Task: structure prediction
Amino acid sequence: MNYRHAFHAGNFADCMKHAVLVWLLRALMRKPAPLFVLDTHAGVGRYDLNDGPAARTCEWQQGIGKLLDDPPPPLADYIGLVRTLGLYPGSPAIARALLRADDRMACCELHPDDVVTLRRYFARDRQVAVHHRDAWEALRALLPPQQRRGLVLLDPPFEDPQEFSQLASGLAAGHARFGNGVFAAWYPMKHRAPSRKFLSDLHDTGIRDIVAAELCLREPVDPARLNGCGMLLINPPYRFEQDVLPMLNALRDRLGNREAGEAATIRRISDE
Ligand SMILES: C[S@@+](CC[C@H](N)C(=O)[O-])C[C@H]1O[C@@H](n2cnc3c(N)ncnc32)[C@H](O)[C@@H]1O
Result:
């Protein structure tokens, strides 16, 4: 396990993923019934952008660094939360900040050092369980939740090309156990073929109500660069497209450099 998220914290891909995550949780919280959140690839929880790995790569300067001052209105909720939380919040910190008293969260992290950091962050938090556990195994072990409603966030590191097929089968296995759950899976767009195959594999599972939200900062043709990223949603909450497309457009306008292929899209992969 070589991947350390600290090098990439707050980059454009994190902004896209976390802005969508905030919207999803708010949407699920329109109903009062308690929620379960499963963060299958949690990382360490929060990141100091001015020290250590994030300060060495400075990826955040092309991401959250361009949004904090004068955030575009569709991103105001996400940016407001980032400002409130201090250090740049990863997915577990964002989700935790939004949980209501009866909601619960489970976070899985496989890296032996990162899970220790995450455990320390949530020490004494009775609403959050931190597992040193493989994400793909956790989908089978922790679903369906007692609450019978909630969100599963899958955010693999994509260290090797096999992870697209692992993600597709993980989604299918999770959905088989928790059919009405909202599943959100992040994926990279370096070149076009792997993400296209991933979406076509998901379509072929027969799972209904799938959409893909994508943000490209340039044509995805260079396999050595993160040119864009996507979030695949199963059971997207009501108004996903109407509300999230303006967020993606705002990210494209603020974070893009007017390169060919810049795009923000939401596409339906399978019917409701
Ligand atoms: C992209 S990062 C997660 C970032 C986090 N979701 C966020 O938004 O702040 C992926 C994380 O998954 C962990 N990881 C890798 N393989 C895993 C597995 N099979 N099960 C659980 N965690 C894994 C890595 O150590 C890394 O911390």
Remarks:
- The first helix runs from residue 12 to 28.
- The mean pLDDT is 96.
